[in-house]
Each structure stands twice: as C-alpha cells, then as structure tokens.
Amino acid sequence: MPATLIGLIWLAYFIFRKWKFRKYLALLGFVCFIVFTNDFLANSFLKAWQTEPANLGKIKAQNYTYGVLLTGMTNTLKEPKDRVYFNQNADRLLQSMMLFEQGIIDTLYISGGGATALRKDLQESRVLLSYLESINFPIEKVIIEDQSRNTVESARFASDFISKQRKILLITSASHMPRAMGCFAKEDFNVVAYPAVYFTNDELISLSMFLPSYEALLKWTILFKEWMGYSAYWLAGYL
C-alpha cells in the first residue's frame, strides 16, 4: 500500500547510513509522498479505473428479477450486537434498496460470508438480513448466500440460486466493479453493472487538489488494492 511503501523507503534511508546511494532513498520517499498525497492525481487515476455510473434511465427501461448485492459494508466485530455498524460502502445497500423500491429489481440477492475462524456466526449477508428485518423491508423478497469468502466464490455460488439465463443487476463499489464483472462473466452470467460508492469527485480543478491530503492517500490505497486483486484473479484464471 502507498503509505507502507513511503514508510519503508524512509525507514531504509535511516537504516542504510553507509550506502552510497542513500540520498536517492530520501528523494524517492519525498517523490512518493508528493505523488500519493496529490488528490488531483489520485482522483484522475481512480476515475479512469472505476466503472462509470449506470444510466438510470436505461436501467429503469428493463426489469431485473435479481439485484445481486456484494457485501463488504459492515463491521461485524463491533459490540453491542443489537444494531448494525456500517462503513463507507453502505451506499451499496442504499442503492439496492432504491432499485427495489422503484421496481427495477424484483428480488434482492445478498452474497457474502466473511465469518472469521473464531466466529462462524458473523456472515455479513445474515447481518444485513437482520438489518433489513429491523426496518420492515419485505424479507420474502430477499435471498442470502452466506458461504462465499471472496468475489470469485460469490460468482460461483450464485448459480445455486440464480438461473444463468436471467439478466441480473450487479451492485458493488465502482472501484470493485471491473473485478466483480469479470468474475460473473467468467461464470457465464448475463450481468449488467450498477456501480455504487464513488470516492472520486467531478468538480473543477482547484488549488486544494494539489496540496497533500489523506483523502488522496485513501484513493490510492483503494486503487492499489483493486489493481493487485484484479492482477491476482487474472493470473489465477478467475477472469
């Protein structure tokens, strides 16, 4: 990750005091700091990678039996357990609920386990189901898959619940969508992307975008994670 990379470079600068090229480590660390905290660069690269927003008009013109929601939006380890704690990816669920309420999808299919070795009861899809129950969402229109541990398994296990002949609407983060679409296409699903969770902005260039910021570091971290994930999936033949 970018922050780790910067830290390791500067740590090497202090450790290798007698190395004749030591000064280049300091320069490299400074350059990496400038690049990875530059919001203009981070915003531009992340926008180029992520999937563009779906055309809602075209989406509404078609009916989808299933909206497939990928998990990764709650903190299942937080106490007390009488509520659901959401993170920044909660937009996935909010967009899914909007699509259901507008009649664009008939059934919400939630895919994701995420249980830990010590707690087998922490499947995130079940946590989300309990939240939907608490707000009186029509549970008879919800299907959960609680065994998958990653996007590959989400795509594979979906065939146990959904016919591959049906067109499905895939809902996940815009930065994660290229990898998710590849996995579902690999399993021969007829899938349409509905990306959510955008960390980028479309405002005009401003001076503040060139000042060091932690938001830029966050965007680069998301981008690095997806680049590495996509590359690993491609090498493994999952895409």
TrEMBL record:
Boundaries of each DUF218 domain copy?
Answer: 87-229
InterPro entries to which the protein is assigned, alphabetical? Cell_Envelope_Assoc (IPR051599), DUF218 (IPR003848), Rossmann-like_a/b/a_fold (IPR014729)
Query: Which top-level group of life is the source organism from?
Result: Bacteria
Gene Ontology CC terms, in alphabetical order: plasma membrane
Q: Which UniProt keywords apply?
A: Membrane, Transmembrane, Transmembrane helix
Pfam families linked to this entry: DUF218
What processes does the entry annotate via GO biological process terms?
Gram-negative-bacterium-type cell wall biogenesis; peptidoglycan metabolic process
Which parts of the chain span the membrane according to its record?
24-46
List, alphabetically, the Gene3D superfamilies matched.
Answer: HUPs (3.40.50.620)
The record, for CDD domains, names:
YdcF-like (cd06259)
Listed name of the protein: Uncharacterized SAM-binding protein YcdF, DUF218 family
